[in-house]
């Protein structure tokens, strides 16, 4: 069992109870005691937010409304704590955005405030509705770089469009966030010019860009086949649900929501497959492995996830050869786990 600091426990309780005033008061006390913004974020705010969401999930009460409440309070607290930071002289001009379908802005907002505290001028765009708007802001601010934040690998498919929009006006792109994985591979394949797993890496990348504009990274991803998957995803989900029900009906849990749950799992497998086709076969394998773990917790048939992957491969392999590697990797992973 993970040991949680008492201070983090207390702060998580404030977030979970919706106590905005109490959370703000505690944040001000901690920052005024001499701690840095980074100390507060990584030692208190981020772990408390993760803790309250994890506990709510285990107790089956992590609704979108609950998560939004906790995140909204954490965001407000972040702004208050950041107001006490004393930034150094301006170091660079940066624009930050999150990827399409990201429902969680907090990691990117934390990034923005920590960069501001270190003297960078930062404009946060949230989730852009179109790339033309990104290009316009980059031009208006004469940005040194575009930072693209992605928390979940299923949300990576829009990165090539963002990278192309920045590159069209000569602005380099920095990739960051858990969605980009543990090294630079995914980011570079999607068109980013640097990967920044830490705040310090952002500054290093910008300094490198300023020393000599990089040869902007070409997109190496399988965009055409990913886009075809996206176009047929809705119809394909229904078709695959019919196929799995027919072939593997004995494996499916009984109940009124059985079809809905199957559709949801197949839809998500297709979304993760799109990202895996683009840049990294491990993306689908990791998600499929998570599904197997969830199936074990819910006492679902252990062969159901491999069966869904088999149905996917049978349906897609001849029309879209790029799905072969990620589906085979996922089937191998789940065969060991099931």
UniProtKB/TrEMBL annotation:
It comes from Paraconexibacter algicola. Residues 91-216 form the B12-binding domain. Pfam families: B12-binding. This is B12-binding domain-containing protein. GO terms for molecular function: cobalamin binding; metal ion binding. InterPro entries: Cobalamin-bd (IPR006158), Cobalamin-bd_sf (IPR036724). Gene3D superfamilies: Cobalamin-binding domain.
């Amino acid at each position: 069992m993970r040991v949680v600091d008492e201070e983090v426990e207390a702060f998580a309780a404030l977030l979970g109870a919706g106590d905005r005033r109490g959370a703000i008061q505690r944040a001000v006390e901690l920052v005024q005691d001499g701690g840095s913004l980074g100390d507060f974020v990584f030692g208190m705010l981020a772990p408390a937010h993760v803790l309250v969401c994890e506990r709510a999930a285990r107790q089956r009460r992590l609704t979108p409304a609950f998560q939004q409440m906790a995140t909204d309070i954490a965001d407000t607290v972040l702004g208050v704590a950041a107001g006490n930071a004393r930034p150094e002289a301006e170091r660079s001009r940066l624009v930050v955005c999150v990827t399409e379908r990201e429902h969680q802005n907090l990691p990117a907002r934390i990034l923005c405030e920590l960069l501001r505290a270190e003297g960078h001028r930062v404009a946060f765009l949230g989730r852009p509705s179109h790339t033309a708007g990104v290009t316009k802001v980059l031009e208006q601010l004469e940005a040194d770089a575009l930072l693209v934040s992605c928390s979940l690998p299923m949300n990576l498919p829009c990165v090539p469009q963002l990278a192309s929009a920045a590159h069209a006006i000569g602005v380099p792109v920095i990739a960051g966030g858990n969605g980009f994985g543990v090294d630079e591979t995914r980011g570079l394949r999607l068109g980013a010019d640097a990967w920044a797993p830490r705040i310090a890496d952002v500054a290093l990348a910008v300094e490198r860009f300023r020393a000599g504009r990089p040869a902007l990274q070409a997109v190496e991803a399988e965009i055409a086949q990913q886009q075809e998957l996206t176009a047929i995803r809705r119809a394909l989900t229904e078709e695959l649900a019919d196929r799995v029900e027919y072939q593997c009906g004995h494996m499916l849990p009984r109940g009124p929501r059985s079809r809905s749950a199957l559709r949801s799992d197949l839809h998500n497998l297709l979304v993760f497959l799109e990202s895996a086709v683009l840049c990294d076969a491990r993306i689908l394998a990791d998600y499929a492995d998570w599904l197997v773990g969830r199936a074990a917790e819910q006492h679902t048939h252990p062969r159901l996830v491999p069966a869904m992957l088999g149905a996917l491969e049978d349906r897609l392999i001849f029309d879209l050869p790029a799905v072969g590697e990620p589906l085979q990797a996922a089937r191998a992973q789940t065969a060991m786990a099931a």
